[in-house]
Design a protein that fits this description.
16% of the residues lie in helices and 28% in strands. The protein is α+β, with helices and mostly antiparallel strands.
Length: 740
């Protein structure tokens, strides 16, 4: 009887195993089925610096990788893995990267194609403050070449979460979609600060790295730019596409792109919806990077069926600590393309949770035109812990309602608060305008050989920039290479609107719907779409600030990447420090970037000439519609400024209009005072009109002068015409004021 049971048991096992094998064989490229998920989270290879040095070998190669248990794909990878190794470094380290390109030849270049160089690559460190000469995105490592990089991380570089990716113009999006990216962790110094208790190097059991990559984006119905679509546009070799025939005669490539099959996933650490396991009551640090090329992630951790949520606080954004731990606004963290975020999380109730990207309808207008990923990123399994000391490890307080977050490390002195700096301390002002048709400051970046410098700024001076999005149909994400910036204010948008015309051209219109006719048109014969109406695009004077007036990045926050909603105006400040060289300002929608939405500026030594070539559009200063429109700048005007400028102005004015001398008087003292103003500060111009700046300065310095000299409003207007066009408008009596 016992023998019979054993035989029966063996038979049952054999039948079960055989059935399982048959079932497994059905799931393959030629016979697609449901994807396998919920496997235990795997960590990327960890490369840790020793004696302040780290050597990284990255082999770029075609690799056959498996996702979802059965789907075999050819992808460009680092060292044969989806997601490169994590670099763990410290301030003061030197990182040597040997980049070995083992890819085949590029397809023949087509001058009409903006997506190209599928097999040329480089390495770019996103968010790290390192020399732009070392972190040069213009380098191209062609097939068969080897390039050694050396990055010196400053001794006072802040600890944080960053990432790296390829950045060759024309193939950045394609290679990032393929899976070529990895995380960089600048470790916190071992101190008494509580954050050390949840971070490597001494408490790595509290730290979890989550690299979110857009590796399985195939469904084309939502965005039109799936991996297959880009493969075709960049002319990838047919053997690397999934052209296997299925039983019905269609190809696997077609099956993957069908909307009904829902093949639209981000991978997490190269896995499809893996399972993260943590202990209840134990505080964990999640380091998260959105390595998505075009997708915004809106990450949340919904409560379980028990109804008890995990306690989650943001502690860092873009590798920069917040002033204080922050509760998730509306229950989620919005991470732009290329952004990073760090959480402190504690779950007291065992159970199964889900880390997902869940777009909220309240953000629809602010994120118009952005592709927002909706779906599961990872499962979170919380198991019961026998350790009682976990309960208060993150917060002081016995209940969830009494949680008091820990104190975070103080930010570097290089990121001091710039919100209240004196106007006289600002040495440079600039406007960066994102527009439709993938334009940045009304131009497209064409190629490496035509990389003209759009602006120059001096080292170590406070810069105040205005970031504009004149596109009414889409939000845009902007990033400044290696220079984090502080959000100063969200302002009313009063500028022109960039639109795509019938036939795909580009024009600028004012807020009444009239063309900005002083600009050289991009599409001179194109007309507006028939459905175009100013009310339809939502033009109105407003402060565009989601989160009930706080913005995706709060005023006072420091960021490396920022989302600009349609028709928005944001003021930022930063101080370029340590390094001179050419720096990228770019859209971090990597597809837009490849299509030309980036520009170069140069950080130069103090005392060097800041002159650059003029913008490519006649009269087309970013943010303006007409020559007289306000444009904040400290660059030299069209006529030489000197101690005699105001005197020459009055000589010209009284010669042209002799009657004005009786009205406005001699003004010789104002001319002398103006000379002193220029001598004291060549960079004190804040309004775009030098005479207006002068009166502001003079009346602040000598309040009694305002009563004597008056408003001078009409003189300011006359002076503006004198500088720009040398045309005098007709004066009205109400504008004149006798100040002699």
């Amino acid at each position: 009887m016992e023998y019979t049971k054993k035989i029966l048991f063996v038979c049952v096992c054999f039948i079960s195993t055989s059935a399982l094998s048959i079932e497994q064989r059905k799931c393959e490229n030629s016979s697609p089925c449901e994807f396998k998920t919920n496997e235990e989270l795997q960590y990327p290879t960890q490369l840790v610096s020793k004696n302040h040095n780290l050597e990284v070998n990255l082999k770029v190669q075609m690799s056959r990788i498996t996702l979802g248990g059965w789907l075999n794909l050819w992808r460009r990878t680092y060292n044969g893995q989806i997601g490169g190794p994590t670099w763990r470094v410290k301030a003061g380290d030197t990182v040597t990267v040997n980049l070995i390109n083992k890819l085949g030849k590029n397809a023949p270049e087509n001058s009409n194609k903006l997506l190209k160089f599928a097999n040329s690559t480089n390495i770019f460190l996103h968010g790290l403050h390192v020399s732009p000469e070392d972190n040069d995105a213009m380098i191209r490592v062609n097939p068969g070449q080897i390039k050694s990089y050396k990055f010196k991380i400053g001794c006072k570089h802040p600890a944080g979460t960053f990432w790296y990716h390829p950045n060759v113009h024309g193939s950045t999006m394609f290679q990032t979609l393929s899976g070529m990216s990895g995380m960089i962790v600048v470790e916190d110094p071992v101190t008494t600060n509580p954050i050390s208790s949840y971070s490597c190097p001494n408490n790595c059991d509290h730290e979890i790295q989550l690299l979110f990559q857009p590796t399985m984006l195939y469904k084309t119905a939502d965005d039109g730019f799936s991996f297959v679509r880009i493969q075709k546009r960049i002319r990838d070799a047919g053997k690397f596409r999934n052209l296997e025939e299925l039983r019905g005669g269609e190809t696997l490539e077609n099956w993957l792109t069908k909307k009904d099959n829902h093949v639209q996933f981000f991978t997490t650490n190269g896995q499809l919806q893996p399972r993260i396991r943590i202990e209840s009551g134990k505080t964990m640090r999640f380091r998260m990077a959105n390595a998505g090329g075009i997708h915004v992630l809106e990450i949340s951790l919904p409560r379980t069926e028990t109804g008890v949520p995990c306690v989650v606080h943001e502690i860092a954004r873009d590798g920069i600590y917040l002033e204080h731990p922050r509760e998730l606004q509306h229950g989620q963290t919005v991470i732009a393309q290329g952004g990073t975020a760090d959480w402190l999380i504690r779950c007291d109730v065992p159970g199964n949770y889900k880390i997902e990207s869940n777009p909220l309808s309240m953000h629809n207008s602010a994120l118009t035109g952005h592709i927002r990923f909706r779906g599961l990123l990872a499962n979170l399994e919380v198991i019961r812990s026998s350790k009682s000391n976990y309960r208060k490890s993150m917060f002081v307080g016995a209940t969830l309602e009494e949680n008091t977050p820990i104190v975070l490390p103080t930010r570097s002195r290089k990121m001091t608060d710039l919100r209240n700096v004196m106007e006289t301390s600002i040495v440079g002002k600039f406007v960066v305008e994102a527009a439709s048709n993938n334009l940045l400051n009304r131009e497209k970046f064409i190629s490496i050989s035509k990389r003209a410098i759009g602006h120059k700024i001096p080292l170590d001076g406070v810069q105040e920039w205005t970031l504009l999005n004149s596109d009414s149909s889409s939000a845009h994400t902007l990033s400044i290479q290696g220079n984090p910036f502080q959000i100063i204010s969200y302002n009313e948008y009063r500028g022109p609107i960039s639109i795509l015309t019938v036939g795909g051209g580009h024009r600028m219109v004012d807020q009444k719907g009239s063309f900005c006719r002083n600009l050289r048109p991009f599409a001179p014969r194109a007309s507006l779409p028939k459905v175009f109406a100013m009310k339809k695009v939502g033009v109105r004077r407003r402060k565009y600030m989601p989160y009930n007036g706080k913005g995706f990045a709060l005023v006072g926050d420091w960021r490396n990447t920022i989302i600009l909603p349609p028709l928005s105006n944001v003021t930022i400040r930063f101080i370029p420090r340590d390094f001179i060289g050419k720096v990228l300002i770019t859209s971090h929608n990597l597809l837009r970037q490849d299509l030309g939405m980036k520009m170069l500026i140069e950080i130069a030594k103090k005392g060097e000439s800041m002159a650059v070539r003029s913008f490519g559009v006649k009269g087309g200063r970013p943010g303006t519609c007409r020559p007289k429109d306000f444009y904040p700048t400290v660059t030299a005007p069209s006529v030489k400024i000197g101690t005699k400028t105001l005197k020459n102005f009055f000589s010209w004015l009284y010669k042209t209009k002799p009657s004005y001398r009786k009205t406005y008087g001699d003004q010789r003292y104002l001319s002398r005072l103006y000379g002193g103003f220029l001598a004291q500060s060549q960079t004190h111009f804040t309004t775009g009109n030098h005479l207006k700046d002068f009166f502001q300065w003079a009346y602040e310095k000598f309040p009694s002068y305002k009563q004597h000299y008056g408003d001078q409003g009409y003189l300011v207007e006359l002076y503006d015409y004198y500088i720009s066009r040398k045309v005098i408008p007709k004066a009205s009596s109400k504008n004149k004021k006798n100040t002699a």
